[in-house]
Design goal:
homodimer, mainly alpha, 10 helices, 2 strands, DNA-binding
Chain lengths: 230, 230
DNA sequence: CTACAGTATCTGGTACGCCATAATACGATT
DNA sequence: AATCGTATTATGGCGTACCAGATACTGTAG
């Protein structure tokens, strides 16, 4: 049996451990705001809410801690990590560097498939804005960058970006709701795609940087406007 | 009592939980080769070796898994992650992008303190090469980049670089042992410092990129030379 | 109203047990 | 003897119970 085919008939098992299910649940609960920043995450309460044992809950909390979504106060226990503005700016900066890098690589490859895939994602974003479906905007934006990275086989960088992105997810959901972002966001991304189509590596790099820089500026405004109200 | 002083007499407790101690131990054991890539990490064995309970061991394994140092085979359990060459190249590339970014920022800040701190680290590296103390070379190199990042308050990026670096640590220890690396490595780093001293952001960026590119090339050679021998 | 003691809460950590699965060894059958 | 089925073992996944230490809360005595 040839190597390429030998997995074809493999029986697909759920294979997800309880731990992974719980991890996804809690992470989602944090990123979509069910648990707010600063909330304490009491182990035994989580056990009850998730319907799993402390063993599982503790492993999940450790995992989220290493993702930066959960902070651990000594002798007090885990809380949902607070995002301070300085950290958010750094995250945006890193994303700029890595997404710029990926955009440049895409441009240098000069592959029509890449352009087509990016345009499809971009169309999805426009539609979601038109339908006012903000959740869809987020997932489509993610998918845009996902193709940007995976088309040039940069899955490690994609993992890094993804890891950082969850930490600023509530910021993202605020920035995209900003007035004019529905116009300017896709416009900036279009510039990236155009530069890639032209094979203009440097232009693609700068366009990607500009896009996250804009997002960062909006995030900073949103965050500094909200902090005093706390 | 004034706020600035009130922590002064605080009794410094280890504050490290058993879990963190165990985490460090296991990570170090992996990084310095006590556990080889592909080795199985049997929970109950680790309990015995570390002298801690299974709960702790499991949490440690989960943490290392999310760091990428440990891989979990379904229905078989955790093993030490194997590093394939493609992934290593991607990690070097990311480091290049981020270290270049940090170097540029350092140059733009034009602070003599930064230059002084970097020169001190660099001197440490040279001395370690002279003494043939390869472990010290590694830690001093880390400290060089640590100052590069923290001097411009980019601790998040530093965290990312650090996280990625542990995954290629055995590669690092092989590349620095390469002939001529003891000359060329410090020379490339000196170029970074010089550009920073000149306030030449672009030059610092490129010098940092060149340095990791060189390391990456050596690593690739080392890795592809070793793989067939497996 | 304050100080202090007692109490409740919660994490950190341990021990132990049960179950499911995968691999291996072993034995039976043809 | 080769093969097939079965017991055994190793191990991870998961749950429960328990204890110690730190912290926060509370009520009472002075």
């Amino acid at each position: 049996m040839s190597g390429a085919l030998k997995d074809a008939i493999r029986v697909e098992r759920p294979a997800k451990t309880l731990r992974e299910l719980a991890l996804d649940k809690v992470r989602e609960a944090i990123v979509n705001g069910y648990f707010r920043p600063g909330d304490r995450l009491v182990e035994r309460d989580l056990c009850a809410q998730l319907g799993v044992s402390r063993t599982v809950v503790r492993e999940v909390l450790r995992h989220l801690e290493s993702e930066g979504l959960v902070a651990n106060l000594p002798n007090k226990g885990p809380i949902v990590a607070q995002l301070d503005i300085e950290e958010a700016k750094q995250i945006y900066e890193i994303r700029g560097a890595l997404e710029g890098m990926a955009a440049r690589l895409c441009a240098e490859r000069r592959s029509p498939e890449i352009v087509a895939a990016l345009e499809e994602s971009l169309a999805g974003i426009r539609n979601s804005y038109r339908d006012n479906d903000m959740a869809a905007v987020l997932t489509n934006t993610s998918s845009f960058y996902h193709t940007l990275f995976t088309m040039v086989d940069r899955n490690v960088a994609w993992g890094v970006v993804n890891l950082l992105t969850v930490r600023i997810n509530h910021l993202r959901s605020m920035t995209i709701k900003t007035e004019r972002r529905g116009i300017e966001g896709p416009l900036q991304m279009l510039k990236i795609v155009d530069a890639i189509r032209r094979g203009d590596g440097e232009g693609a790099y700068r366009a990607a940087m500009d896009h996250v820089a804009a997002a960062s500026a909006i995030a900073e405004a949103v965050l500094s406007a909200k902090k005093p109200a706390d």
